[in-house]
Prior knowledge:
By secondary structure, the protein is an alpha/beta fold. It has three domains: about 5-225 and about 510-540, no CATH class; about 230-345 and about 380-505, Carbon-nitrogen hydrolase (Nitrilase/N-carbamoyl-D-aminoacid amidohydrolase), CATH 3.60.110; about 350-380, no CATH class. The chain is built from 18 helices and twelve strands. A six-stranded mixed β-sheet has the order 5-4-3-2-1-12. A six-stranded mixed β-sheet has the order 6-7-8-9-10-11, with helices on one face. The protein is globular.
Amino acid sequence: xxxxxxxxxxxxxxxxxxxxxxxxxxxxxxxxxxxxxxxxxxxxxxxxxxxxxxxxxxxxxxxxxxxxxxxxxxxxxxxxxxxxxxxxxxxxxxxxxxxxxxxxxxxxxxxxxxxxxxxxxxxxxxxxxxxxxxxxxxxxxxxxxxxxxxxxxxxxxxxxxxxxxxxxxxxxxxxxxxxxxxxxxxxxxxxxxxxxxxxxxxxxxxxxxxxxxxxxxxxxxxxxxxxxxxxxxxxxxxxxxxxxxxxxxxxxxxxxxxxxxxxxxxxxxxxxxxxxxxxxxxxxxxxxxxxxxxxxxxxxxxxxxxxxxxxxxxxxxxxxxxxxxxxxxxxxxxxxxxxxxxxxxxxxxxxxxxxxxxxxxxxxxxxxxxxxxxxxxxxxxxxxxxxxxxxxxxxxxxxxxxxxxxxxxxxxxxxxxxxxxxxxxxxxxxxxxxxxxxxxxxxxxxxxxxxxxxxxxxxxxxxxxxxxxxxxxxxxxxxxxxxxxxxxxxxxxxxxxxxxxxxxxxxxxxxxxxxxxxxxxxxxxxxxxxxxxxxxxxxxx
Length: 541
């Protein structure tokens, strides 16, 4: 292949990196751009399919990964002293992913065009599953997210998880790529029905039928009411104060107290629950009760809480071992007298920022202390899926699980809370440090799918946004503007179906099925086994 052609392929990969950053939530389209989402990875798939070798496909993947990561997650530059490591870690991580993943795409692109779009879409879905899972998982930027606000389309995720929607979006992208792979750069100039064009028509027909089935299911689901078993009143406080900054702790407490009173006044009655965001109490509550009895001086916290005479749910460090300085990033429930009822410790931290693995290994500790400049292993990981319960004014009770910060983007965490008995999910977040709308909305769009997957209400209480109540269909029931001081006084409905959704029961079965199919294809292509009734030419052109 000529050098000029290789340059064109690199440009295609770079172009795709730009497109996907415009498809997911960004500073221009705050909730994402669905139209761009249907074609954002097509140029990259074309480039990889036309690559002269697996090695060059890795280069194309690295170009795509570097550009898409930097343009999409640039707000990680505001991640305090960890900014260099977070933005570079995510970017290098994706470069590594695509250096390994692109050769597989290249291999799958060589199969019979009749199957190729579906196999490439399945491969992309498996990639998104792996990059969203495990300790290093980062479930941002999925191809499903641009259509996250189209409610009839997204209802399918209560069967398949977000992976089913990722497959459909990747399939459309693959079919658009297939037009150019089969028809060339000017596919519409020749109107003759060729064999390749007939195949494309059939492939698009299959994709159209899949989208039709998904849409019909979505409208049917939306028309099927979920029992509204009960409701509770809540005041969600958005202080618009960066809790990572020093010197504003008392200001943050005073602001939250003032907004709480305003919210209660707006509600017109005592709420069942007062909710503040992640780490609103920056000092461990149990160990610093004397501090909270006295401060802020003009309106001490514990006397304020007793005045409110209701349960409070907020974020605070929770000490495990004072001698070792071991603490969890936790949510805590306080009763009307200010007594600690229970806590939940964050289980999935931001890797290498909130938690350093293998800290007790001398070489690891030396590297992070002497080279990186980090002198702590970070938060201790929680091990218990706490289900909180509070009494309501009408004598009923409500149970809830509490994914902390970006934990609400991980399906497995929210699924476990629901299976353990949570009526609703309440997420506490402190994303104010990001200083950008796109960071807030990228998080919000990812979290929104959890409500639809589990068919549970998701309450998000944040220090800057997006503070909202999301219904079981993904509809926004109430919301506060971003980066404003405000309190949201709201009656939160509780919807519970008789049976768990298929996704809640079976979890991430779809990408695992795809992975099995892809492995079978790879074994077949490698000649490790054969199907006597199917000749190789039926699968490989």
